[in-house]
Amino acid sequence: MYHRSDPRSSLDLSRDRAAPPSSYGTPRLFRLHEISPSSTTAGGTRIWHVRFSHFVVAYYELVPGDAVPLLHAASDRIVLVPHDDEPVTLDFDIGRYPVDCAGMFVAAGPAILTAHANATVIEAAAFADLAEVPEALNEPDFADPVPGIGDARTRRVPGLQAGVRFYPMAPYPPTPGRFGRIIASSNIMANLLETEREARDVTRLSPHSHADFEQCCITTKGSYVHHWRTPWTSDLREWSEDLHLAYDSPAIAVIPPGVVHTANSVSRGPNQMIDVFSPPRQDFTAQGWVLNPYDSDLPAAAAALNRGSDG
What we know:
Helices cover 5% and strands 34% of the residues. By secondary structure, the chain is mainly β. It has a 7-stranded antiparallel sheet, with no helix packed on it. Strands 1-18-15-20-14-13 form a 6-stranded antiparallel sheet, with no helix packed on it. A hairpin with a 5-residue loop joins β2 and β3. It starts with 27 loop residues before the first strand and ends in a 5-residue tail after the last helix.
């Protein structure tokens, strides 16, 4: 149930009203500074890997001068630089890309990431695009398929299979009716939400669920509370208490299909949140919220959705 002030209240929710799963996966919250990283480089950069059914997220806390290889992606993925004034350089085979502002790369091929100050960088790649999949913190959660998860619907978009595109966020200020700042690669969609400068109004939350895909929710700055409710099934033994998890960033949440969720910032700010999905959400595309639709076949996908197709 989206609050009427939320741009998502205009979405067609018929898909999410489909028959719920007969059982549910377990939502997870990884408070990154309270757990050991997946790896630490010789130069001191810490990296956490968290997986989902169709993709993996790498969270890098870089130290100045350290050169770190990105995931071994054979195709395009999204690399997020979530904060201004944290200069980094990405070195690809086809060129060098220095940036010092918040933005997102859609990039293919191997790359080396170098920070020129302490910096946070986040990478998200679909398994279909990974030449090598890293061991994740939550790998045991995927020993069996997540209940309710949909097909990966892997796409191959020729225009994104080579080259590098960088989208700075400064040209996209908050716009009435647009939800966040969304960039899509072939198989990943990321939403770098506008930074909140105060705690969220608790009378304007938007608890909702998704019928057949997981949500990745990353916070890089600020303090939050995640609220999760797992619907009852016919088996009483599977019922779970509601969860209200308070935490300080950075953190990564894994929210399975069917689990009712919302979150609110509770600090004065800055509060920074990012959502990641795979495959890309066609409902967001149909609303015109994707900032780079002409890089790919997303307009065709939106047209198919409007014709009643699943894309």
